[in-house]
Amino acid sequence: MVRLIRTALAVLLVPAQAVDLSNLAAILKDISAVQYPQLQPLAADIWKHPEVGLSEHHAHDIVVKHFQHEGIWRVTPHSYGMDTAWTLDWEHHPAGWTPAQRVPTIGFLAEYDGLVGIGHACGHNHILLNGILAATMARDAILKLDIPARIIVQGTPDEENTAGKYTLQQAGAFKSADVWFIAHPTNANAVQPMNSRLNAVYRFVAKTHEDAVRSAYNLLVKVRDLATGGGIPGTSSSATCIEDVGMFASNIVQSAISLGISGMTLADVNTTVASILDKTYPNVTYTVSKDNHGVNLTAFGPGGHASESTKGPLVLTTEVFRKLSAQSDTGFYLPGNTSALELDITVDLRTRYTQDLDSVLSYLKDNTKGLTDSITTDLPYPSLEITPYLPDMLIDLLKTPDYGSQNWSVSTFAPASTDASWLQNAVVDPTTKAFLSADKVVFHPNFGICEVGGTLCAFNHEPTFAKVAGTDYSYSRTEIIARALAHMAIELLNDKEKYGKATAILKKT
Length: 509
Known about the structure:
The chain has 509 residues and is an alpha+beta fold. The protein is 36% helix and 18% strand. The protein is built from 14 helices and 18 strands. Strand 10 and strand 11 form a beta hairpin. The longest helix has 25 residues. The N and C termini lie close together (9 Å).
């Protein structure tokens, strides 16, 4: 009964007499010609001034200032108890509608946090632009077409580390809309699910620095064996280690790792590394040099998501440790940090479906017993499932000349994780893995921003992707996706049948 009431209410809110949208693509192009030049500089500004999660004060302030000056949106700074969150809200009541009447509502999500040490290497400056541009284009087209509607844009801090959308969800930020749009830049076009994620932090406390380093590297060896052994439960599950030293973050696999080796000559260390490093370590290099404690081995290579499924710098130092650790006269240290008696290793656990996270964590704990007494976990990121109906709607739209005649696909591969899954809160059949229902419709296409035929391209969380995210071409790609999402939003707001199909996945209670 609750489902029937909810569906009936949604249908009643959509105008009974749909407006002719045959010229919508042209209308949105005209609107974009005005709005894009005003909004793109905001994204370029935060790209130049990256801020990590929960510290996005500059990004917050320039967005709030811009839209307060524009004077059309209801602008709420520091919304829902989060210092760097903000909310834009606007609604239109045509003649015959009273301000008290509810109108159909669509929400857009904006992200703007950067990554420690590598800036906007996940391209969240584009997620900001997509959110504010798509919403503003939808707003202006709704007013021109006189469609009853409400548009909300929610600025969401710290997607990367503490799941800012979870905090906002708990505060009720997403209650007013059942459909939320967000688009994420990457190196290819696809509508994809996103995997679930949990970080397990192992702390090693020892009486000597040498013992702390040995304990930490023993874990690295063990997790490496678990990750390559094929025994981790769940679907497409992985365990990737991050060494919590220097400039690090729980979701960034470092692109440079140093391990000090005492009791060996520089030539012997070099020979050992050379015997391990082969073509299975793509784009990994190293240097060895003498310091006051021994030989400093520093490995360089791909970081971020790109190294999670390949052998990167940390894997190389782990394998060097494995080969040398049995030698009684060989010791280990962390160059530049030789006094540390406490070391942390974060194990980034990912699996395709949320329901398998507990078993993945249990498997890890069971197989690392005795290595440390201190294991803590952070807030999990649930998996994000592909919402039915909307992918085909987007793909069909992007095929048209107005949107670049693009070829898109729907993929079952989950390339990363997102805290937008906290809005969706998907229910998946435990046996068939069929997507059964959701709290909210969350549409999260991933779009490529690498120029076709260009030489500058990378995957998210690699330092080079930050350069990609600052190019003129990348912003032009976001303009097209934002325009397409605005188009979809207006079609849903205007057509009760389409809105019904888009929201059919919503939970009954």
